[in-house]
Amino acid sequence: MTGEKHHRRGRGASRWSRIASTVSGLAGCLVWGGLLFRSVWVDWPSEQRLPGALLLGLFLLCLLVVGLCGVPLLGARRSPHSRAAGADHTPGFPAASEHAPMPDTDGPPTPSPRTSSRGVGRGSATALGLALLGAMLGGCERKELCYPEPSRPLVVYLALDNDLSGECDARLAALCSGWRSDMDVWVYADTPSGASLSHLEGTASGVELRTVETYGEENSASGATLERVLRSVWQRSPSEGYGLLFFSHATGWLPEGALARPHAEAASVASGAGGGATRTLGRDGSAEMSLEAFAAAIPEGMPLDYILFEACLVAGAEVALELCGRTDLLLVSSAELLVPGFRPLYGECLELLTSRRLGTEELLTTFGQRYMQYVRQECAGIYRSATLSVIRTSSLPALASAVHRATAGRAGETASEELLSQLQHFDRPGQYGDRPAAARFFDLEDYVERLHAASGADMASLAAFHAALEDAVVWSDATEQFMGGAGAPYGGFDIARHGGLTTYVPRAEFPSLNEAYRQTAWYRAITTNAL
């Protein structure tokens, strides 16, 4: 009886040992599993997070089953002979029914070797599984997990002190929805209530815009304001490269106010009363930022990788050449950009705009493709309209020289009504209050090809132009119609040609606007072949 009591006591002790081992294994599984899950969800690229989390969850579930069901992954198994004899038998240890002496009934029972290895085996299995899983997860993206790429700081410039002010709250909310902890996003917003610079940051409750500078009432359509914002971000967040998303009204190369009043405004510019030629990007009330002021506002030496223009009519060769040397790439629209613009993409594409895993050309091309997909699949009626292109600004000088040769120096001359009527245009004459209603934004490729045919220049020069255009336009896409197409209300038009860059063509209706155009760097380059 005494021996039987000792035997039951030993079996009880071993049972509690196994329970303790199982509990410790499960606890370790949960702790390490949580740490590994956090590593996957925070450090892995977004496209790999969900598959990685699912695989991790499946593996942890298997470990939990192992712990709960008592499957001895490591340690001995019972031999059939031992089960038949009613005793545990571990290889390497003699069975009690064969060679091992029976325990002394007056002393404590000798622990079964299998009892110890079983408890240790289950804990060891869990620990070994977690170790292998950690090695696997670390090895899959070792470089990214251990040496994560710093994100590209993104400056979002919202010049909304105009009729776009109602877009402010929705855009800020969309930016917050797309923010992740590894992003560096700065938001300048100017509305009728004032202007401020904020930084997107994480909090215990989610994401917030932390205001870092408050400016009050100011003119956001000013080169001085844009420069101050860019310098502030450059100082606060040093980096090897930046992105700029610019949202406001724009009229490309046109002088201030000339979109609606091509005669009056252009005449004052040509006579000098307007203070010199001003092409506009951005609007604050009635004030507009000149193209020259915009270019000069980008601080010398600031590595601005790209500018994403969420604005209308900015794909002009005049604009791209002016920004050459200030930024590498532009994402621009030949026609107008209809509200809500890029806002529906902020949530899913903010990570794309701040990532360094893609080159900037691929980054902007991917963004443009996603927007065109959104327009074609999600928009209907007149809103199924878009024109986008990615422009390499460093290629513009060579492109201007190629235009000069392909047109035998005739580019920039006042065109005939016959030629103008044949050209693809991207504005909506008469819809801006402009009189006379005449197009001013034409497809560059269409213009050069038609002028080449009339000039008698050699075919080699035309081939050189096409090669230069292909080098300058990284990617382009457009819908088949804009705002319903030709004959539709709101001045819609068909899009038969879209080379990715537009140009102004001097016309007899606008003599003073023609004079303002002759002051642009692009005009000088295509007429004199010199910059």
Strand order of the largest sheet: 4-3-2-1-5-9-10-11-13
Q: Hey, roughly how much beta strand do the residues contain?
A: 15-25%
Distance, first to last CA:
109 Å
Low-confidence stretches: 70-121, 137-147, 265-279
Specify Rg, calculated over alpha carbons.
Answer: 35 Å
Helical content stands at: 40-55%
Count the DSSP helices. Answer: 18
Q: Describe the biggest sheet?
A: 9 strands, mixed
- Total DSSP E strands: 16
* General shape: elongated
**Global structural class:** alpha/beta
Task: Look at the structure and give the mean pLDDT.
Answer: 81
What does this protein look like?
- With 531 residues, this protein is α/β, with parallel strands linked by helices.
- Helices cover 45% and strands 16% of the residues.
- It has helices at residues 2-43, 46-69, 80-85, 113-140, 142-146, 168-178, 223-236, 264-271, 291-297, 317-322, 346-354, 360-378, 396-406, 417-422, 444-455, 459-472, 511-517, 521-528; strands at 154-159, 185-191, 194-203, 206-216, 242-247, 250-255, 279-284, 287-290, 304-310, 329-332, 387-392, 442-443, 473-478, 481-482, 493-494, 502-503.
- The longest helix is centred in the first third of the chain and has 42 residues, at 2-43.
